[in-house]
Design a protein that fits this description.
It is built from 19 helices and 14 strands. It is an alpha/beta fold. The longest helix has 23 residues.
């Protein structure tokens, strides 16, 4: 089965190259580092032991890995790190992580090679990791076969597996089960994830919790957002966080059912698309609806009173702020009274609600949060979140919350309590990793 899988990958390489070129039309970074993707060549870690390799596909996984890598770096001052990704967004987030004090000068970045055995062998031969970590859902049959041959222990950390993904894995059981069983251990987010993973994997399996609860919001950004919100006296700030393609249209349609989307007074709408390549696209979408948003990247330019004055003028007429910057979610959550989490109005699995709760921002969740199923249920039970059926109900609930400041304040406190109560995944994960590293 794995031979057929490898042949399929080799046949698909021209299509993969064409896909990268197509993506590069909006993100030129996709035209770079093809030697890493196709040949397994790239930067080498400096001399030092041990070498820890961590694979984080994109932005969310890279941010989730931060507390684990920082603590590992503190415990092992001679260690070197190799951080791999699949997307430019993940690589950009990884560059910020690699520059942090515990990791600075000790971490190199590469793209993980595609599932071509020669490229994988070159990657592993150059990096020579003592221990490999795969974040969340990354089961690559040829990669795991190669690490098994080299006796490199690999652990799936912060692991999750939805019912939908389990059904797909069972269809490919002849390929996925042998791959999963080459893992040295699995650190699952929840007991439900562990139960599903156990049907594919019979090795060491520990429920360690979700590393995303370990994230500490940027204090300066959060304070700046709250300061800006305090200046907007009598204004309610609605955040549409990490929205995905197709969701903005639904939100705008739901708003327009009660009148023009720009005519909800004393309200500031903050729209932050998930992917940076969509910033201009979403700006054009708003313009087509008669909305001229102020871009966060230009906020305060040429305006008397700067940032706060611009926001206040926007809010007076029910205006829109387009979040077209990266790495500022703590600012947006600090600014907002409530947030609708993107990726949940369409069957996309939802985006990270935990970061919002850690900032003390009440959240609304659409019906499709299957990538954060347990966290979503727990947040609703804790009073930190409200589940809605669609965009229309989301707008109605936001209006209800705007008229009930006491409930909003309680939800904010419940969100902070919910985030604090679920921390500790880093220590539990390291307890699994340290014996493997020593061995």
């Amino acid at each position: 089965m794995r031979l057929l899988y490898t042949i399929a990958w080799c046949c698909a390489l021209p299509l993969v190259a064409a896909y990268l070129l197509w993506r590069s039309l909006r993100q030129p970074e996709y035209r770079r580092h093809w030697g890493e993707r196709f040949l397994g060549a790239g930067a080498l870690p400096d001399a030092g032991e041990p070498v820890l390799w961590l694979h984080a596909v994109s932005l969310g996984e890279t941010r989730a890995a931060r507390p684990l890598l920082e603590e590992f770096a503190r415990r092992h001052p001679r260690a070197r790190f190799v951080l791999t990704h699949m997307t430019p967004t993940g690589r950009a987030a990884g560059a910020e992580l690699a520059a942090l004090a515990p990791l600075s000068g000790r971490c190199v970045q590469r793209y993980l090679p595609y599932e071509i055995p020669a490229a994988i062998d070159r990657f592993l031969g150059e990096v020579r990791p003592r221990l490999g970590l795969l974040m969340e859902t990354e089961i690559w049959p040829n990669l795991l076969a190669a690490t098994d041959r080299r006796a490199i222990p690999v652990v799936l950390v912060n692991a999750r597996l939805s019912e939908r993904s389990l059904v797909k894995a069972r269809r490919l059981a002849a390929l996925m089960v042998p791959a999963a069983r080459r893992l040295s251990a699995v650190c699952a987010q929840t007991a439900a994830d562990a139960a599903r993973i156990a049907s594919l994997y019979g090795g060491p399996l520990v429920v360690t919790g979700n590393l995303k609860f370990e994230h500490v919001p940027d204090a300066a950004q959060l304070a700046r957002g709250r300061l800006a919100r305090a200046a907007l006296e009598g204004v309610r700030v609605r955040l549409y966080a990490s929205t995905r393609e197709g969701e903005e249209e639904r939100l705008l349609a739901a708003l327009e059912e009660a009148g023009p989307a720009r005519a909800l007074p004393r309200t500031l709408h903050v729209l932050v698309p998930r992917h940076p390549q969509r910033f201009d696209e979403v700006a054009r979408l708003l313009a087509a609806r008669g909305i001229e948003p102020v871009r966060r990247s230009r906020l305060g330019e040429g305006s008397p009173g700067g940032e706060g004055a611009t926001l206040l003028r926007l809010a007076e007429g029910g205006g829109w702020l387009l979040g077209d910057t990266m790495g500022e979610m703590a600012f947006y959550y600090g600014l907002a009274h409530m947030a609708l989490i993107g990726g949940s109005l369409l069957p996309l699995g939802g985006q990270n609600l935990i970061e919002a709760c850690a900032c003390g921002c009440p959240v609304l969740l659409g019906p499709h949060m299957f990538n954060f199923a347990q966290a979503s249920r727990d947040a609703c039970e804790a009073g930190a979140a409200i589940e809605v059926a669609d965009a229309r109900e989301a707008m109605a609930r936001m209006s209800e919350l705007s008229a009930d400041p006491a409930r909003l304040a309680k939800m904010a406190q419940d969100a902070l309590g919910f985030a604090a109560a679920h921390r500790g995944a880093t220590a539990r994960t390291l307890a699994v990793l340290e014996p493997l590293l020593a061995g």
